[in-house]
Structures are given as structure tokens and as C-alpha cells.
């Protein structure tokens, strides 16, 4: 919908890109080409009303684009929280990442990049990528790859296990088939390990390679085979579930997130133009 806004006798200063100003009967006229709903939402941010509800990322993006066009940088900061709603970050983190970078929101860009790790990096195309340089998307791919490498390393080096790890049943049981390799722990000793536990770690490595985040290692589908095998052993059966729950929930998933914290996104940021 195309509308006109009477600007009075003085032209706005500075002249913002995208605004068409023309003279008509001695008055400057600013043409607003945004749709009426977006305009209404922007005005709600301008006046002391309750902030509008932005139900989807298209709404957020439209409001931010209009605010940027009119140089409303202070108001843009009030929309940042709407961009990183938990549902958006969970379901569409790549879109959030591209929008956040486009408008110069560094904290939100980093948060969205972290949330993309919950998804396979080569997912469906999103139109917001057209608004950011290819180099930035490439750096996101590199970030995903570096995170994959660092967390996958946790599955083949047990030196990060807590000091009491040797008490877990997969180190204690002598009745199950042991893995062909023995494994050193942080206490400096080398232990034989039940094969079913190593098989779980190998499955976790494959999953982390595609989605490097702590949530992945607690996927029941990854754990199920290990617990089914453990259930056939009279030594492992009573302890396997509790020990696995403790290991994954209190140690493995936490260590994955700590490892990701060491990886820098390595993206240059800019302020909204």
C-alpha cells in the first residue's frame, strides 16, 4: 500500500536512504511504501504503547527494515529481543542468524550461530541469506565444522572424565565383552571398557559430526542400543541406566557445550547503516 506522510515545511535531517521526498504546494512529502500493518507496528514502538506482538520472523524483519530506512536505530534495539524468541532460535536459527547480521546485532548473531549447531548445517535454503555476504555464510560453515571437530574429539579421549569415572559400570564389569582397546582416565590408570559403551560413544561421534551440541548426545535413539545390550548382563543391568544418565546429563553434554565455548565465530560485525 502506498501512502504519503506530510513532513511539514522542513525536510528531515539527515536524509535517509530509501525515502522519497517531493514538493507539493510548498510542502515536503515523504512517500511510505511499506504496508500499513508494518507501519502501524513501527509507530507502536515510537509512541508509549505496548510493543506490538511480532508473530513470525517476516514481521520482525519488516519492522527492522522500515526502522533502518528511517534511521530509527534506538527503536531497532527494542526489537532485538523479539528476534531471538526461543521458538525462532529453536526452529529457524539460520534465518535469525542472517537477519541479526544484516541489521548489525552482534550478540544476537552469535546466539543464533550457536543455535544453528542443533541442526544439520546444509538444511533448506532460507531467503534471508540473500541479504548477507557469501563470506559470512562461509564463516558460519567453518564455525560449524570447527565445533564438530572439537566435540567429536571428546568421544575418543576420556581424559576429561571425572575422577570417579572408574566406578561406572562399564569400567567395572568383567562379564561383558570388552572393547579391543584399553582407555586411560584422568587418574593416570588404564582401564578396559565394555564394548557396548564404546559403541555408544561411536554413535555419538557420528551424531555430533552433523549436529555438534550437547542435546544430541542424550538422544534416546543413541542410548537405546547400549542399554539393551547392558540389560543382558547381570552386572550391568541394575547400574547401566543410572550410570549412563549421570554420565550423559551431568558430564558428557556439559563437556560438549564447554568445548563449543572455545570455538570463535570469527565474523566481523558492523553497525546498521
Q: Any overview of this molecule?
A:
With 273 residues, the chain is mainly α. Among the domains are: 53-132; 152-261, no CATH class. The chain is 50% helix and 10% strand. The protein has helices spanning 36-46, 57-69, 73-83, 86-91, 93-102, 106-116, 134-152, 169-172, 195-210, 220-230, 237-261, and strands spanning 3-6, 20-24, 27-32, 178-184, 190-194. The chain has a three-stranded antiparallel sheet, with no helix packed on it. Strands 4-5 form a two-stranded antiparallel sheet. α1 (36-46) packs across α2. The longest helix has 25 residues, at 237-261. The radius of gyration is 27 Å and the shape is elongated. Mean pLDDT is 88; it is low at 1-14. It comes from Pisolithus tinctorius Marx 270. This is BTB domain-containing protein.
Classification by helices and strands: mainly alpha
Helix proportion range: 40-55%
Tally of DSSP helical segments: 11
Q: What is the subunit organization of this protein?
A: single chain
* Topology order in helix (H) and strand (E) letters: EEEHHHHHHHHEEHHH
The rounded distance between the terminal residues' Cα atoms is 25 Å
Report the major sheet.
Answer: 3 strands, antiparallel
Mean of all residue-level pLDDT scores: 88
Which consecutive residue ranges, at least 5 long each, have pLDDT under 50?
1-14
Percent of residues in β-strands: 5-15%
**Using only CA atoms, what is the Rg?**
27 Å
What is the number of beta strands?
A: 5
Strand order of the largest sheet: 1-3-2
Shape: elongated
